[in-house]
Amino acid sequence: MFTIDDLHDIAIQIEQNGAATYSKASEVVADPETASLLRWMAEEEERHRQWFAGLPKTRRTLSAADREVEDMGRSLLRDILKSGSDFLHDREALETAPDIDAVLTSAGRFEQETILFYEFLLALLEEEDAISRLREIIAEERRHLELLQQLLHSAAGSRQ
């Protein structure tokens, strides 16, 4: 069982991972256009992180057994998200991307993975407020994915 507070903390970590990944990749790619795009993506992820951080946290009273189960679940997810496993964000794919199309494709995949992860979390939530907030976040991630797809289409069209 996940609460809005769990979602809040996990989402902040996902967005931090995304911002760090895009930022680091922008420093190592040779193409200035690609580097600029990656910096923009890092800024977008940071904006998401700030949005999540600004959401109020709620506190509800849990039984000792519920608290133990939730603590274990949160700890496991945080370890995965903070680890060097690059869960949701494959730094190497961006750092070695040969061109803007590859960057946009990788970034789109990251956004899709984030959406899938948030949809997974949505199925675990019980609180109506948390469900509503997460649906808003998923819609925002879908808008980012749509923008990336438009940029990819524009980049391909400008080369023709």
Question: Could you characterize what this model shows?
Answer:
With 160 residues, the chain is mainly α. It has one domain (4-158): Ferritin. The protein contains six helices and no strands. It has helices at residues 4-28, 32-54, 64-82, 91-95, 100-124, 128-158. α1 packs antiparallel against α5 (100-124) and α5 runs antiparallel to α6 (128-158). The protein is elongated. The mean pLDDT is 77.
Approximate strand percentage: under 5%
Count of strand segments: 0
- CATH topology description: Ferritin
* Poorly predicted parts: none
Q: Helix content range of the residues, please? A: over 70%
What sort of overall outline do the alpha carbons produce when their principal axes are compared? Answer: elongated
How many domain regions?
A: 1
Class per helix and strand makeup:
mainly alpha
**Topology pattern, helix = H, strand = E:** HHHHHH
Number of helices: 6
Rg calculated over all Cα atoms = 17 Å
Largest sheet: none
